[in-house]
Amino acid sequence: MIVVDASVAVMLATGEPGSDRADRMPEGALRAAPNLILAETANALWRKARIGSLTQTDAARASHEISRMFRRLVPSQELRAQALDLALRRNHPAYDCFYVALAVREGAPLLTADRRLALRFAGDVEVRLPTA
Description:
Layout: E1 2-4, H1 6-14, H2 19-22, E2 31-34, H3 37-51, H4 56-69, E3 72-74, H5 80-90, H6 94-106, E4 110-111, H7 115-121, E5 127-128
Parallel strand pairs: 1-2, 1-4, 2-3, 4-5
Helix pairs in contact: 1-3, 1-4, 3-4, 5-6
């Protein structure tokens, strides 16, 4: 299993630079994420459509692709306490910490395009950057 965050999910669904590297996962690896990824990616796609980097049709298509991308979506409620603890201890936005909490809980690598997140939590989990 590999935990994929919203930055990578949007990258994969929209074909952004680095998506070819992000899509190279070990054969048979399952993608997992907290279920908040659906809201977070919908907001990112809305923002891209609003500024004109995606059409509304492409944003809707990408959203549909993201909804099918994951074999496992974990209820955020299951990760809430650990995510808040990580956010408070590391002074990092809580929504990012849900992904870290899931990766820690499952002993799985975290795939993110967020370098700040990767640097902040590299000691807690194996972090992979598709742009590296």
